Amino acid sequence: MSRHIAVCSSLFATLFLSACLSTEGDGAAVLSSVVESAQSGDISGDTDEKNEARLSAATDVFKAATVSDAELQSVTLQVVAELDKTNQVAPASSKYAKRLNKLTRNLTNEDGLELNFKVYLTNEVNAFATADGSIRVYSGLMDLLRDDNELRSVIGHEIGHVKLGHSLAEARTAYLASAAAKVAASEGGLGAQVLAELGEKLINAQFSQAQESESDAYGVEFMKRHKYKVTAAESAMRKLASLEGSENGSKLFGSHPGAKERADKIHELITAK
Ligand SMILES: [Zn+2]
């Protein structure tokens, strides 16, 4: 028995490292405690029951930690389909859909990523992109950013989150943190409620300041690459900064303090040689 545990604990240690690299979810925490107890050396003194419980927890984490990118992409597609069903998608005849179609006409494949766009009709100032290349823009954001290039700069920023791997990492964290999703997956399908719960997490993704800075820089490069008016990236951020702290505060950027600082940083990027 003790030899078996020793073999497992080195396997756990390897998994733990990869889990730490890829997630911050509760899976890593469970695995961490399993590894610590396995490494503490007093396992032989424990009852079989305790060991069984540890192994069962570790097996669950093992399954979660091995969720492949392909599996996550498939879950993401299901989540987006559910979001499109539960949000009010602007019909093709609406002024919002017409405007978005027009200004994204050339954006079908960005940097190897196939894109698809829809407008959600809501006063909320928001936009998000998911790992499969779906981009959803809220009509509230379109009302705030009347300049097409400003809207394009937000789209470029959102594409950045996908291309830089932030969106897939976020999907992994949400998926691993959702006990309901793990159970549903093991039973052969994710129900509407679980998909809605995951959708909520992806829409309200809390990216780190570093990830936001990286995506801002990606957005500036995106504007340059397409020869769009690059200063629109700065003016869009200033408009979003003006909402900070207000009731209409944008979830898009308002969740992080410092939209003004980010606008200043974008200004530096634009004016740098
Ligand atoms: Zn962002």
Share of residues in strands: 5-15%
- Strand arrangement in the largest pleated sheet: 3-5-4
Shape: globular
Main β-sheet description: 3 strands, mixed
Give the beta-strand count: 5
Report the mean per-residue pLDDT as an integer.
79
- Number of folding domains? 2
Structural class: mainly alpha
Characterization of this structure:
The protein is mainly alpha-helical and about 270 residues long. The chain has 2 domains: about 1-65; about 70-270, no CATH class. The protein is about 65% helix and about 5% strand. A 3-stranded mixed β-sheet has the order 3-5-4. A two-stranded antiparallel sheet has the order 1-2. A hairpin with a 2-residue loop joins strand 1 (about 110) and strand 2. Helix 1 packs antiparallel against helix 2, helix 4 packs across helix 10 (about 190-205) and helix 7 packs across helix 12. The termini are far apart. Mean pLDDT is about 80; it is low at about 1-45. The structure holds zinc ion.
Secondary-structure topology with pairs:
Layout: H1 2-22, H2 26-39, H3 48-65, H4 69-86, H5 95-103, E1 109-110, E2 113-114, E3 116-120, E4 127-129, E5 134-138, H6 139-144, H7 148-163, H8 166-177, H9 179-186, H10 192-203, H11 209-225, H12 231-242, H13 251-254, H14 259-271
Parallel strand pairs: 3-5
Antiparallel strand pairs: 1-2, 4-5
Helix pairs in contact: 1-2, 2-3, 4-8, 4-10, 7-11, 7-12, 11-14, 12-14
Residues 157, 161, 207, 212, 215 line the site of zinc ion.
